[in-house]
Amino acid sequence: MSPRESTSVTPDPVLFPGAPARPDSLTDFVFELVRDAIINKSLAPGSVMTASDLATRLNVSKTPVRESMIRLKEAGLLVPDGRQLRVITPSRQLIHEAYEFRLYMEPHCARLAAQRAGATVRDQVAASAQRAVAGADSSDEYYAAGRDFHLRIAQATDNALLRKAVEQAHVFTLTLSRRDLPAPPDQAGRADDHVAVAKAIRAGEGDLAADLMRRHITVLMESALARFGEE
To answer: pTM of this prediction?
Structure first.
């Protein structure tokens, strides 16, 4: 392991404030830091990203940076511009497309979760829904709990392709929502949606779980598009 790949990492504090010193995984560490820098606009929309520059700023080798940039590109947060990659710029159309994708993907995941999840996984989904309710007064806690809730349902499908697709779409919509939109006005209501979906999954009611998830994401999409128009 090279000096830059040691577990004692000291990123540029200006671009990456508050970074932990000892990450468990360098690739996950870089991915999360860059995603957060996109959200807080330390990496401005439209700015060019290179592996060499990020590796220098993060004090790591290029390998975890390249791996993270691939993941960010797959999630849609980095877009090709010739031979370069740029941070995605705000776009109403992209937000609409991402939520539309989730609208047709995640209800099916909820149905499969109700059919396939064991008791332990059902309990985990329910607990995640309750965390969203408890954190509804804080955007950071609400977003974190929401991400956990949706990804646990995707994992409960026992389908790796569905899980990856949902994760990428959720990373995309969550990042753009936090960066480009005002905070959602009814976080408590959306957290209650989670509880309703979780109850349907726990009861094994696949059609109901799918219908509730469809309604939930429709509201999320409509809210996101309305908030984008307010900017």
So the answer is: 0.82
CA distances from 171 to 10, 109, 118, 204 (A): 25, 17, 26, 27
Beta strands in 17-108 (DSSP E): 48-49, 78-81, 84-87
φ/ψ of residue 116, rounded to 5: -110, -25
Longest dimension (CA), the chain: 53
- Looking from the CA of 210 toward its CB, the CA atoms found within 13 Å total 13
Q: Is 138 left (phi over 0), alpha (psi -120 to 50) or beta?
A: beta
Cα separation, 133 vs 131, whole angstroms = 5
Per-residue pLDDT of the chain in tens (231 residues, 90 and over written 9) = 344 444 455 666 556 655 555 556 889 889 999 999 999 999 999 999 999 999 998 888 899 999 999 999 999 999 999 889 999 999 899 889 999 999 999 999 999 999 999 999 999 999 999 999 999 888 888 889 999 999 999 999 999 999 999 999 999 999 998 999 888 888 999 999 999 999 999 999 999 999 999 999 999 999 999 988 754
Structure-block tokens of residue 147 = 């991400």
Which tokens sit at 83? 């031979």
CB neighbours of residue 155 within 10 Å: 20
Question: Each residue of 112-148: b (16+ CB within 10 Å) or e?
Answer: bbbeebeeebbebbbebbebbbebbeeeeebbebbbb
Helix, strand, coil share (%) of the chain residues, nearest 5: 70, 5, 25
